[in-house]
Design a protein that fits this description.
- It is built from 10 helices and 10 strands.
- It is of the alpha/beta class.
- The radius of gyration is 18 Å and the shape is globular.
Length: 264
């Protein structure tokens, strides 16, 4: 396994040239892709950038600055990181070799409301009551307590986002930033309503691969909608898989085999 070391806003596994950069979700979920980074670093050098900017374009610019020294690198974007990868590739069409997008949320408003509806349907009555209590507390408490409550909320939704979670895996250390999430995601939702994400797709010139679980609450139909706007894209649907393939018992091995194939 490659040695790990940290530079400004980025963890590096191995030495240059770096073959792939892992773009985390959240927004504000720095560190959540560490397991993938360590797995891939057995055979290649990996970058794991951490986004800290408080705006969508700020995160694009920050990521471009971090990756500016990497030549023809592949981006592996997860969840919000998939959306961010599409944005930076649309603004810098010659910068990247390929995009591999995992669990990409809907890019257009047509399917945006399906995710919360699916999650709500999967929640037990007890969890629905608990979530309602947490949401009420979040609106009336201080920032430190709000972050704690938000992480409790996130944990409850992770259960319904997964098909068959591998509970034997150790949880990654995620330096979650609630301020980043609130600023960036509210702006991202506005851009989605305006159609900005779908509009940018025609500017992407590198190959794009969408990897999506059939049990992901983000609907597969939204991925197919996105593909119709991109010149060179294809989709792989993983069976018995939720939003995070590398923690799914049935899907994780197939997921890593797919990554190996796409990175050859």
């Amino acid at each position: 396994m490659n040695e790990e070391f940290v530079v400004k806003n980025c963890k590096l596994y191995g030495n240059s040239p770096y073959k792939i950069a892992l773009i985390h979700g959240g927004p504000g979920g720095a560190g959540e892709m560490a397991d993938i980074a360590r797995h891939l670093s057995c055979t290649m050098s990996v970058m794991e950038p951490f986004q800290t900017a408080l705006s969508v374009q700020g995160q694009v610019d920050e990521l471009k600055d971090i990756l500016s020294s990497a030549l023809s690198i592949t981006l592996l974007g997860y969840s919000w990181g998939a959306m961010l990868s599409l944005l930076i590739a649309s603004q810098n069409p010659r910068m990247f070799k390929k995009l591999i997008l995992v669990g990409c949320p809907p890019l257009g408003q047509k399917f945006a409301e399906e995710t919360p509806k699916t999650r709500q349907m999967r929640l037990s009555p007890e969890d629905q009551i608990e979530i309602s209590k947490i949401k009420n507390k979040i609106s009336t408490t201080n920032q430190k307590e709000r972050k704690k409550l938000f992480l409790e909320l996130k944990k409850l939704f992770e259960k319904v986002d997964s098909y068959n979670l591998d509970t034997s895996l150790s949880e990654p250390h995620i330096d979650f930033r609630l301020d980043i999430y609130e600023h960036v995601w509210s702006e991202a939702e506005k851009l989605r309503k305006e159609g900005s994400f779908l509009t940018c797709l025609s500017s992407i010139s590198c190959p794009v691969v969408f990897i999506h679980g059939d049990y992901d609450p983000h609907p597969c139909a939204a991925v197919w909608e996105a593909v119709s706007f991109i010149k060179n894209a294809h989709v792989v649907i993983l069976k018995n898989c939720g939003h995070t393939p590398w923690v799914e018992i049935e899907a994780k091995n197939e997921f890593y085999e797919l990554l190996k194939k796409e990175l050859e």
